[in-house]
Amino acid sequence: MRYRLVIFDFDGTLADSFPWVLRAMDDVADRFKFRRVRDGELEELRYCDAREVMRRLGVPRWKLPMIARYVRTRMAAEVDQIKLFPGAGEMIEELAATGVSLAVVSANGEPTIRSVLGPHARRISHISGGVSLFGKRGKLLRMSRLAGAPPPSVMVIGDEIRDLNAAKTARMSFGAVSWGLTRPEALALAGPDVLFARMDDIPRVLIGETSPLETVGP
C-alpha cells in the first residue's frame, strides 16, 4: 500500500452528523448571538470554506472555543442520534486488515467518537478529539509522528476545505468525500488528490485497485 497512515475526519466523513447539526443550528446561533441561516441559504453555504461561512453568519473568531465546547457537550448528551454512514464500519475493517495504521482527528469529543464507532473503534490506533476549527495541521503532524509515518506517506480523508488545507500544509495527501458538509464541486475545485464518490471507493484507491489521481465512482 502506498500509504502507511490514514487519518480520518469524523463528522461528515465517517459519521452522518449533519441532520443533528441542522436540528441544533438555530439554537446555537441564538445562544451565541450570530445570525441564523436563512431559508434556502444552506446549500449556498455548503460551497464555502469555514472562514467564509463565519464571515457570512457574523461569527467572531473569539467565540469559536465556546461554541465548539457547547456543541461537543450537547452532541455527547445526544450521541444516540449520531450514526456512522452506511458502509463506514466495513470500510474501516477492510483497511485495517491490510495493516495500514488508522487515526481520527476531529473537533468532536473522543468519547462521542468512540461511542459512534462502536466495535470499529478498536481498529483506530489514535484518536485526537476536541481539535480547534483551524488547529488540524498540528494534530495531523502529531499523528504522523506517533505512527512513525512521514507526511508524504499519510493520507487525510475529510469533507471540508479546511481539512484539505490542513493536509496540504502538512505535506500530506488529501482524499475528499462527496457525502459530507461541503459540496463535492467545491471540494474538487480546491484540488484534492482524489474525490471519493462512495464509501467503498476508499479501500479501492488505498489498496491500489484504482489510481489515486482519478476521481472515482461508479
Provide a quick synopsis of the model.
With 218 residues, the protein is α/β, with parallel strands linked by helices. The chain is 42% helix and 11% strand. It is built from ten helices and six strands, in the order E-H-H-H-H-H-E-H-E-H-E-H-E-H-E-H.
3D structure, described in words:
This protein is an alpha/beta fold and 218 residues long. It folds into 2 domains: 5-16 and 83-207, HAD superfamily/HAD-like (Rossmann fold), CATH 3.40.50.1000; 18-81, no CATH class. The protein contains 10 helices and 6 strands. It has helices spanning 18-31, 42-45, 50-57, 64-77, 88-96, 110-117, 136-147, 161-169, 184-190, 201-207, and strands at 5-8, 101-105, 126-128, 154-158, 173-177, 194-196. A 6-stranded parallel β-sheet has the order 3-2-1-4-5-6, with helices on both faces. Strand 5 (173-177), helix 9 and strand 6 form a beta-alpha-beta unit. The longest helix has 14 residues, at 18-31.
Summary keywords:
218 residues, alpha/beta, six-stranded parallel β-sheet, Rossmann fold, 2 domains, single chain
